[in-house]
Task: structure prediction
Amino acid sequence: MEAVRNTDRETRCTQALRLHEESGDRQAMALDCYQLGTVYQDGGHLDLAVAMFRRALVLCEAIKDQQGVAAAYTRLGLLHEMKGDMGQALFFLGEAQSRHEALADVRGLAADIGYLGFVHFQLGEYDDAENCYREALALNEQTSATAKQAEDLANLGNLFNILGRGEEAEEAFHKALVLYEQAADPRGMGGTYRSLGNMWLQRGDTEQARQLLELSLSLNRQAGYDLGEGLALDSLGSICERDGQLDAARTHYEQAHAAIVVTGHPKHMAQAHGRLGALLLRVDESDCARDHLERAVELSRQQHDAANTARWSKRLADAVMKSEGDLQRARQLYDDAMRYFHEAGDMKGEAQVYVGMGNLEARQGQNTQAVAMWTAATEC
Result:
């Protein structure tokens, strides 16, 4: 089981809900459903959380609690983003935005617009993302919401980094850190230090990256934020792997996996399984590698994440060939990966698949075909 349940909180909320159902107190029931949904979300049980927030929404609509309706729409939007259903995320967050506008709730409106920016960012719609982040920041400045301003600036920093606007990214991150410190928000600071660490890692300064990521890890542990802790550990593992420190990398990846799987976040769970599986494959533990990579492929497919489905399918094909010798299945996995990489114009990905396919042909004694595959890899 890859998520945990806070049974004490769940029991208390469930008992309260039953009492309020018996008394017919719909307002209290709506609050109970909202709180129970939060318990499920925190424990990584996203489908149960969706069901509870939907019920809270219906109850709030029935009693004409427009603030509750808006809050439920926001939560549903965030949950669908976590589940990888960006269309539903945009719909629910759009509904939340319109409700908060009608209520003249500037804080709620700013939060919705910021979350919409994050969805656009996930979709690669960077102009829309920047517009949303800037609008959310301007609204949060009106209300002096320090932590939310920091969040908007950190989001802008991540966007600028993706777009190659390094100086703007650094400036945004450092402004965010100042505001998070003012707000006494270790979780926000931890996330921003992780973004800075990953930026320096991209630039090749592994020592600076390591220091920032270790600070991120410490702050996330202080905040009790499992996902942030897991992501910091994942990045630290990648530094160790780059440096050839495979035992240390494995420790970090295993710890990252343990921290992330309890959150129930499918995208990050896929990454945790995939990273660990790929490393285990590298150290010739093919059976364990295969189990993790199977899960990574499954979760990536559920997310409709073609890039990572291809990435982990290639690694899984390697593991299947080593551990099972099931060459037919390995070939199908290579074909699946190649199809995406070709459609995406990802020649590096194609080259990796050609290498795997060459190894497969060689194992079958088809040496001429193997050489052809390896030659294609070199050309890519």
Summary: The radius of gyration is 23 Å. The mean pLDDT is 94. The CA atoms of residues 25 and 176 lie 43 Å apart.
